[in-house]
Amino acid sequence: MCGIVGYLGNKKATEVLVEGLSKLEYRGYDSAGVAVNTGDELSIRKFKGRLAVLSDDLEKSPIQGTLGIGHTRWATHGEPSDVNSHPHFNKDKSIAVVHNGIIENYMELKEELQKEGYEFLSQTDTEVIAHLVDKYYEGNLFDAVYNATKKLRGAYAIGAICKDNNNELVAVRKDSPLIVGLGEGENFIASDIPAILKYTKNVYFLENGEFVHIQNDTVTVLDENRNVVKKEINEITWDVESASKGGYEHFMLKEIYEQPNGVKETLVRRLDENGDIKLDDIKMTKKDLEKINKVYIIACGTAYHAGLVGKYAIEKFAKIPVTCDIASEFRYNDPFVDENTLVILVSQSGETADTLASLRYAKDKGARIMSVTNVVGSSIARESDDVFYTWAGPEVSVASTKAYTTQLVSFYMIALDFAIKKGSITKEYYHEMIEKLKQMPEKVTKALEQENYIKEDIAKSIKDKDNAFYLGRGLDYSIAMEGALKIKEISYIHAEAFAAGELKHGTIALIEKGIPVIAIATQDSLFEKMVSSMEEVRARGAYVIAVAKEKNKEVEKSADKVIYIPDVDDILSSILTVLPLQLLSYYAAIERGCDVDKPRNLAKSVTVE
Ligand code: F6R
Questions:
Q1: What is the C-alpha radius of gyration for the chain, rounded to an integer number of angstroms?
Q2: Are 524 and 499 in contact (CB under 8 A)?
Q3: Which ligand 1 atom is nearest residue 301's CA?
Q4: How far apart are CA 459 and CA 586, in angstroms?
Q5: pTM for this one?
Q6: CATH 2.40.30.100 assigned to 449-591
Q7: Which fold has domain 3-238?
Q8: Catalytic residue status for 311
Q9: Per-residue pLDDT for 467 more than 70?
Q10: Does residue 401's CB lie within 6 angstroms of at least one atom of ligand 1?
Q11: Domain 251-438 is of which CATH architecture?
């Protein structure tokens, strides 16, 4: 977790660093700090708490200097505190480092360094890096960082500066993200693109093991053997506006409203002039597909919930057996993965540590690797054989919304593409489904028109509840899981999702007067069965909020409140059903006074196991 940023140029470094960190707070926000070379010394400011604490301090007492590094932290080793905040420095404060990742052998290194007389101030793993760089420093910062990293095991993106040289910034990455921003007479390093977008759109994506050496206005990238690497400049097409709130009160609400466009972009960019799906980024041929006898979909959290829908779509359309598993479990379960297996990793950030580790595990076993991700050039994208990019645009809010719906669209497209290649569906049915997918952006817009009703009538009715249940059957059960996760993570209402048919096997004991039950009944084939489950919980006092298709008005007899979604085929309903659940979570969180975009204990990108 954590976000790092670094700057060398002509501007006031603290301004660039604080601006960059404000775009990285989604990666962690329990403390923030900067180190700036003033010409005479390294001036370090770091504080527990949100970035505002640091920026207030810098406003009251500015630091002059045009070279600096900054950090926003999500604690792994050591509690959030001033002393555990980054940057960390060596004994005489002549070297400062920021780090994102985890140093697995830090205890061993710490003991060795302590024996050599190094004193540790913090409980962090990062402090060993500062002392190691000090140990190897003989007047050349690059050499020192290079030699220090040889000792490190684990994941890291590191930025380092030293007092002796006001014109040098060194950085390196291994298994944690890092990009280089290339400006006019100024250069940047950062964990993610939004941090530097205000200043430049030109970036280098660093590969694992690559170092960047910025001296004055020259940027050199070197591989792990110190060979100079010729990097390609990538031009970022997002603008600063699309990475900021655009008039909405929270990123989450903005991102909810970006879904019609995200769904459209993900779809139409991949339709050719005949209306066929054209997956340029997926090199898998008909022959490759014939070899595949099973698929694993692996992901975490919301992305896992999208994978559950993906399983449903691939099995239904392409008739290939699919197992969907949680990334933190998958590789410890001895799964049946071989060269006839396709493993699809789903990840908004493309950096989730467990998902990345699952990718590598499956690759070692010879599987074909495909990923569905939102971040171009992310680790997961780069290490996959085939990548399907969701065109959601940057997702900043910790609670994932638009990434999820674009992941769903991706799965429908992948499933239809596989199916037509395998011949498991007819050309007519294929085109009929594509036509129906093309109607989805409009239906998404329509489903979002329920906002005010959800805000005033539904969110207010559950705001004081401690518990809620989400019920669904078939595809709706996967959406119930996503709905429950969303409300838990941002409103802190305890919520659980259950397959409605399982109720009588235990869960119904928890139903008591007034408990909200969100009953998802959008599958025509299972509608009557869902209505029976609603009656069962209502008879025991539950307050039933149903989500149903517009045409199924009879649902009103069995529910206290109904949220309608536009009529749609059962198989595609997931894209619409989740929308009212996102809005309900958002407004329940607002009613409860929660910090929607930055829920407690969470970070946007989980880059540690
Ligand atoms: C929930 C949420 C998380 C992520 C999960 C995976 O709203 O955002 O559950 O879905 O941490 O993250 P990615 O998709 O970046 O791999």
A1: 25
A2: no
A3: 9
A4: 9
A5: 0.77
A6: no
A7: Glutamine Phosphoribosylpyrophosphate, subunit 1, domain 1 (3.60.20)
A8: no
A9: yes
A10: no
A11: 3-Layer(aba) Sandwich (3.40)
